[in-house]
Specification:
Helix content is about 35%, strand content about 20%. By secondary structure, the protein is an alpha+beta fold. The model has no long low-confidence stretch (mean pLDDT about 95).
Length: about 625
């Protein structure tokens, strides 16, 4: 069995689902028709049983390169050899993305650039994570894979041949030639043959969509390419009909290759989505921020949580809350990393921090971030109920931000974000004269602050710690200055950062915590957490350590893949591990850049002012 590295992939999508394309031209992950639907191609999780759509030269290319067409999500995989150069252009056309539909299309166009290159293609769908068989009908240049309530149509320029329940094709492209395929689900009727003009129009329409969308960006800073690629990647991971942002489009990719820390991230976390509001508003993407605000407002109003309080920590992309976890024991897992899990048992966790993240984003939207977007009377009553619940429960032990399975504790981060929830609720009430038990909210807010400053602080370490009475550091606490709980130059915070430098930072990369010092109930180890590294950059910049912040950020950019995409973690060898790409990481990248740019601009302005003053004195 052979598996590509996790980082050796690009992402394409149509705002309802997405696919991974490896640098060898194989689509090895594709769920249909939604992000959280069962897979059709999943050879990334089992090379034999998962299914794939492969497209590559018959004679392996000496060199392969992968790139995006600028300012788009159209992926180009280039194959270079002595006999010629050709490229595969992959994209998913976007048509009425806000309307729920089973229709998904993947275009795979092959272009000859120089000389001649013979290609081999194979389409091997394995429906329902490889658990469901299908019937196949092939007719010249079209094929239909029928799995009962789901089917996939294939239309090709070149003739197709049946190979058992799969389809294969071989063709040669010369300089100027175009060939390729259209894969389509949810289509009505029989597959229609495609002409070159139709594919070209789909291509032009898709280019125009992405370039128009990116024109909304207001970012003009130092790291424009990284920021815009992160923005496009986040857009690709957004389910347009609801506005929900998936944590990642994949499931089962391991945090440690060969280990069991393999989770399903194809859902919308309240935490991740709430943080996206600030990133999107900071770049000028107000429509996406409003869409998630609507999604979050609906979750607050429906109160679907049980043991987790009024909110659940995560939901399906449509807002439903059935995330029952199960294992796919028939799949080998990526490079033998088992079990492969779908669903997520952490959905039932109590994680108090989500109330702070939710209220922080609702506050941003309600106070003018989107003009007239706001919380109405009924919506405010639901918020009051949620905040009153938090007043009664903030001091309870919870599972914490990292969703460990080692039991509940009174995590400092959960209390900090509970303070944020109450603080933002007070501000929302007073800014618009809304009815609320302000005395109670203010009293509980101040109690939380005092609790964190006493029981969340360890005098021996000179640092805020992971949980009450503990002696373990936690990178989530970098949110303390980011949310205003402490000021960046507070001696306690400066001391905490120094302690983090010694224990959590490894050559600019940041661990979220030390599993050996704070057992999380899971076997194996993990790498550094890319989210935490970018948050650390943000905290360094706010603390005035601009040289450290800029160097750490520059180093971190080298860990992105060839397209600027990031998974969840970096292993000890520098390889990306975990689900890919991860929204949280790209959100934190954008946040770090916005803060770092602002601080560097301020520094430069101050330097120029001082030079001007000195020149005036000399004159």
């Amino acid at each position: 069995m052979t598996y590509p590295l996790i980082a050796e992939h690009g992402l394409i999508g149509d705002l309802q689902t997405a696919a991974l394309v490896a640098t060898d031209g194989t689509i090895d992950w594709f769920c249909c028709p939604r992000f959280d639907s069962p897979s059709v191609f999943a050879s990334l999780l089992d090379d034999r049983r998962g299914g794939r759509c492969a497209l590559a030269p018959v004679t392996p290319a000496r060199t392969t390169k992968q790139m995006y067409i600028p300012d788009t999500a159209i992926l180009v995989t280039r194959f270079l050899s002595e006999s010629g150069i050709a490229e595969v252009v992959d994209f998913m056309p976007i048509d009425r993305p806000h309307m729920v539909s089973d229709r998904r299309r993947i275009v795979r166009a092959v272009r000859g650039i120089r000389g001649e290159v013979e290609f081999a293609a194979s389409v091997e769908p394995r429906f329902d994570y490889g658990r469901r068989s299908h019937r196949l009908h092939v007719d010249g240049t079209t094929a239909v894979f029928d799995a009962g309530d789901q089917s996939l149509q294939l239309t090709s320029v070149a003739p197709l041949e049946r190979d058992g329940d799969d389809v294969r094709s071989r063709f040669t492209v010369r300089a100027g030639d175009t060939n390729g395929f259209l894969l389509e689900s949810g289509a009505a009727g029989s597959p229609q043959r495609i002409g070159g003009g139709e594919v070209i129009q789909l291509f032009l329409d898709t280019v125009a969509y992405w370039q128009r969308w990116l024109e909304q960006s207001s970012y003009q800073g130092r790291w424009r390419e990284a920021v815009e690629r992160s923005a496009i990647t986040l857009k690709l991971m957004t389910y347009a009909p609801s506005g929900g942002l998936v944590a990642a489009p994949t499931a089962g990719l391991p945090e440690q290759v060969g280990g069991s820390r393999n989770w399903d991230y194809r859902f919308t976390w309240v935490r991740d989505g709430s943080l996206s509001v600030y990133a999107l508003l900071g770049l000028g993407f107000t429509e996406e921020a409003a869409a998630f605000g609507d999604w979050l407002r609906a979750r607050v109003e429906e109160r679907a949580g049980d043991g987790s309080g009024p909110l659940r920590i995560m939901y399906r992309v449509d807002g439903s809350s059935d995330l029952t976890e199960e294992t796919l024991d028939h799949l080998d897992g990526y490079m033998g990393s088992r079990p492969v899990r779908i669903g997520n048992a952490a959905a039932d966790h109590l994680q108090l921090d989500i109330y702070g993240e939710a209220m922080n984003s609702l506050y941003a939207l309600d106070t003018g971030g989107l003009g007239e977007w706001g919380i109405g009377h009924d919506g405010w009553n639901h918020i009051v109920g949620m905040v009153d619940w938090l007043c009664e429960h903030w001091q309870e032990p919870d599972e914490g931000i990292w969703e460990t399975r080692g039991g509940r504790r009174r995590f400092t981060y959960g209390q900090v974000m509970s303070w944020v929830a109450l603080d933002r609720a007070v501000r929302m009430a007073t800014a618009r004269g809304r009815p609320a038990d302000l005395d109670r909210w203010l009293r509980e807010r101040d109690r939380i602050h005092a609790q964190v400053m006493t029981k969340g602080w360890n005098d021996r370490l000179g640092a805020f710690v992971q949980y009450e009475g503990g002696d373990v550091l936690d990178a989530s606490l970098v949110f303390m200055p980011l949310t205003g709980f402490v000021v960046p130059n507070d001696p306690r915070w400066q001391s905490t950062m120094s302690a983090m430098d010694r224990t959590l930072v490894d050559d600019s990369l940041v661990y979220r915590y030390d599993p050996k010092a704070s057992p999380d109930g899971l076997p194996g180890s993990e790498g550094t957490f890319s989210l935490c590294t970018f948050l650390y950059v943000d905290a360094l910049a706010r603390a005035g350590r601009l040289d450290d912040a800029r160097l750490t950020f520059t180093k971190m950019l080298t860990y992105g893949n060839h397209l600027g995409l990031y998974s969840e973690e970096i292993d000890p060898t520098g390889q990306q591990v975990g689900n890919f790409p991860q929204a949280f990481t790209h959100l934190a990248l954008i946040g770090a850049v916005v803060t770092l740019d602002k601080k560097l601009d301020t520094q430069r302005t101050e330097m120029m002012r001082r030079l001007g003053t000195a020149a005036g004195l000399i004159a």
